[in-house]
Design a protein that fits this description.
Blueprint lengths: L1 E5 L11 H13 L4 E4 L12 E4 L2 E4 L1 H12 L9 H28 L2 H9 L4 H22 L6 H19 L12 H14 L6 H7 L2 H12 L8
Parallel strand pairs: 1-2
Antiparallel strand pairs: 1-3, 3-4
Helix pairs in contact: 1-2, 1-7, 3-5, 3-6, 3-7, 4-5, 6-8, 7-9
Length: 233
Amino acid sequence: MLTLHVFAPALGTISPSPFSVKALLLMEMSGLPYTRATGDPRKAPKGKLPLLVDSGRTIADSQAIQHHLAMQHGFDPDAHLSPRQRAEALMLRVTLEEHLYWALVQSRWIESPEPIREAFFGRLPKPMGRAVFAMVRRKVARALNGQGMGRHTPGEILAIAEEALEAVVTMLGDGPHVFGPAPSGVDASLFGFLENVLVPPLDTPLKRAVQSRAPLVAYHRRLRDGLAARLTC
């Protein structure tokens, strides 16, 4: 029995975590039967989601989940890639998860505080919700500063994101997926990022930058209506 623990849907997204969306799409691509559960990162071994429970064994981290599916269940989304394409997929994944992800975090928690507070803490009594949100926001700001992205100005962060987005558009080309007709693991990463930029009702410079690139918008819609269709029901 496979159970995937992820963040619950919020802000109109399949999940407000790009990594949770990535893991969900990997499970859909695998065709393996699984159960989706709302997880609690405070109880997760690495303090974050997603995590996969497979017959009592816990696998934390979306990339570790991809590796586990390949080693234990015979599903390798990158099996059809050449060695060079695997290397390119790694570089693109690092761009998404180490550059664009932190630009996304900045756009949410620093640039759009009120909608985020309402989405994640709106059910709490107002004084408590505001206090908890302020505490979490300070923690996020420290993480941004520690990673390095938070040390840049908003304009510099947008410039970094724009450069990365251009690289993604170039890699995507005209194909239905990053490496042609068949999807691979990096498609799950890219879809998770785009889902969390394009879907939430937030007007941010990062969202406008993605919206201005038609290939990315079309790609997101194509996967949302196709591979991810069951996840949006």
